[in-house]
Specification:
Largest sheet: 7 strands, mixed
CATH superfamily: Class I glutamine amidotransferase (GATase) domain
Number of domains: 1
CATH topology: Rossmann fold
Number of helices: 5
Strand order of the largest sheet: 6-3-1-7-8-12-11
Shape: globular
CATH architecture: 3-Layer(aba) Sandwich
Structural class: alpha/beta
Length: 169
């Protein structure tokens, strides 16, 4: 069974960017683990409550086939988080799926993973991607090698379908 870890802010994450990919991946037999800065209840921007099973610092790349940084304003807690950056780099260096949606691609850019890569992000993050060497495309979903980025909640379903295709390839 393929496994992916969702990195989610403890609050103000985008509900649909969490729940739509989670439902699509789980329905297809992918095991989803949720990680955050806390273990226990975490809160979406709109209404959902979810459960974080582990701390981000405890993510072991060997235990997962991919990592997904969920967007929303809360994702800013990881923008300058060296632990999150190093974990993302470990997944990339091991040839595993690295993905982020909405504003969360800023995390990947600040980790140095988008330099020279095609990527997308919520429009307010475009300048940060460009400043960090990304080729900002503005597409709903962008794939470059083992990196997948999405631009916001409207792209959540398409984004999840791309993740599923990569995880199953």
């Amino acid at each position: 069974m393929k496994k992916i870890v969702f990195v989610v802010a403890p609050e103000v994450f985008r509900d649909e960017e969490y729940i739509e990919p989670k439902n699509i991946l789980e329905k297809a037999g992918i095991e989803v683990t949720t990680a955050s800065t806390v273990v226990g209840e975490i809160y979406g921007k709109i209404k959902i409550k979810a459960q974080s099973q582990m701390l981000v610092k405890d993510i072991n790349v060997k235990n997962f086939d991919g990592i997904f940084f969920v967007g929303g304003n809360g994702a800013s807690v990881y923008f300058d988080d060296k632990i999150a950056h190093n974990i993302a780099k470990s997944f990339y260096d091991n040839g595993k799926l690295v993905s982020a949606i909405c504003i969360a691609p800023v995390i990947l850019a600040k980790a140095g993973l988008l330099n020279g890569k095609n990527a997308t992000v919520f429009p307010s993050g475009a300048d940060i991607l460009i400043q960090n060497g990304a080729n900002y495309t503005g597409k709903d979903v962008e794939t470059d090698g083992n990196i997948v980025t999405g631009n916001g909640p409207e792209a959540a379903k398409h984004f999840a379908e791309v993740l599923l295709q990569i995880l199953n390839s």
